[in-house]
Amino acid sequence: MISPGLPDIFSAGRETARLLVAPTDLRATDPMEGEDLLSDRFCFQGETLETNGKPPFSCAMPDDAFLREMARFSWLRHFRTQDSSAANEKARASVLSFLRRHRRISGPCWQTDVASQRLLAWLSHSTVVLKGADTQFYRRFAEAILRHERILRQRYKTMPDDENRLIAAIALCMVSICMDMPEKRRRQASRRLDAALDRQVLPDGGHITRNPQTLLNVLFSLLPLRQTYINLDLTLPKRLVPAIDRIYPALRFFRHADGNLALFNGNGATLATDLSAIMRYDETGGTAFKALPHNGYHRLQGNGTVLITDAGKPFSPHLSKTAHAGALSFEMSSGRSRFIVNAGVPNSSDAEMLRMARSTAAHSAVTLGETSSVRFSHSAFLGPVAIGGIRNTGAERSTGDDGTDTVDLWHDGYLGTFGVYCLRRISLSPDGQVIAGSDRFDRKNGEAPSPENRTAAIVRFHLHPSVWALRENEHSIFLTAPDNESWLFSAPGLQVEIEEDLFFASNAGLTRSQQITVSSVIGDQSQIDWRFERQS
């Protein structure tokens, strides 16, 4: 079975493995980016490379992050918008440039996640690359695909369980059915994927990274794989469809009313077109879950008000490399606008900025003594893993007689440094008009901290950049969104300030914003009460 546009070419002396089908890439294409590529202009990570007609991989790259993005080849999809022989030639020249420049399996281009995504991109956009190609290029391209498959199979056995391993399993499964490979290899790839899905997609649909963005990334690979199996009339891996059916409700769980995903544990800017493209294939329907108990998140919702809160911790030391110190943080949206957010992750390779984004202070949570509830290593050998702080977390959900939905959360991240547990209670009234919150600090024996324990506590509420904040009085802040949805924040008897802030997760890059801070001193006051009320 040969897909339209895929030439069935064989070398004169020996048969070349055939490419049977090109899977669909569900990501949105952009004609403007396609025109830039035709003009030898590559724009990634806020940087631009103009090749001026030279082979792109022979040019000096702005940095390694840019090189990795180039080497993923996901940008090939934008050539589809041009529909010209010039676009096919440019795509082919780019692949040849990579094959000539990066034959050695080393460096940023051959990191496993980059190689897996490149393999998927070459398969998905093989029609663009191969249209008008001669026999020699076809053979070289097919051999390069098979070389990637061999390398990923060799590496797979020793890869740690994370998103990269799952994407590698998907890529190996995809190549096993897109290329004319032995049935034994296909069965092996199917079993490998089933095992990876079993380990990484939790019963509630969340992923073991606890990053909402990972769910989107995984679906972008799983959905085309499912459709390719169906198109070829092959038996699907047993765990493929059940995993997709679990992931969709979890993805809906993390969506705010404006359609964006909550910013927890490594999630940054998400293109609305990407999320919309994925949600079009949602066959599970229904409303969002109230909790993802295995992933450690809770959602309170009523009358257009949505709160999503983090009640968990990393599942392993390895997975803590991408985790954030955001336990007990929450986000809130109302109407069509996000009001309270976390700062998100910058679209940048700047190490200092990434460290800032992972800190507790970059989340709508409590910070004690200007330290984070999780401490991360700066060791080049260990990597940015958690080396201290939170060991245990917990959450309890209850409903009051009047229908008020309440979640009680706690963590022990400050027990070793300041001798207290952090406890947060968030309640949403049944009509969605009032959010009542409190942050409490208890010693190990359950008693309030002593007057000698004079530790500074700051509760931060990061505002979305679109929200306008105006001081109402000493203890209250009036908040308004572009659609005129308005809320009044108050913390009676406490020091409430509006301060400058940075929002990392904007598609436009680093964006100035504001935050509300409520300051207190443990020992003087063991509980901080605060409140949001919707304004008519």
UniProtKB/TrEMBL annotation:
Domain of life: Bacteria
Principal subcellular localisation of the protein: other
Stretches assigned to the Heparinase II/III-like C-terminal domain: 286-530
One MF annotation (Gene Ontology) recorded for this entry: lyase activity
Localization per record: Cell envelope
GO cellular component, one term: cell envelope
Pfam families: Hepar_II_III_C
Gene3D superfamilies attached to this UniProt entry: 2.70.98.70, Chondroitin AC/alginate lyase (1.50.10.100)
Protein name as catalogued: Putative heparinase superfamily protein
Lineage, opening ranks: Bacteria, Pseudomonadati, Pseudomonadota, Alphaproteobacteria, Hyphomicrobiales
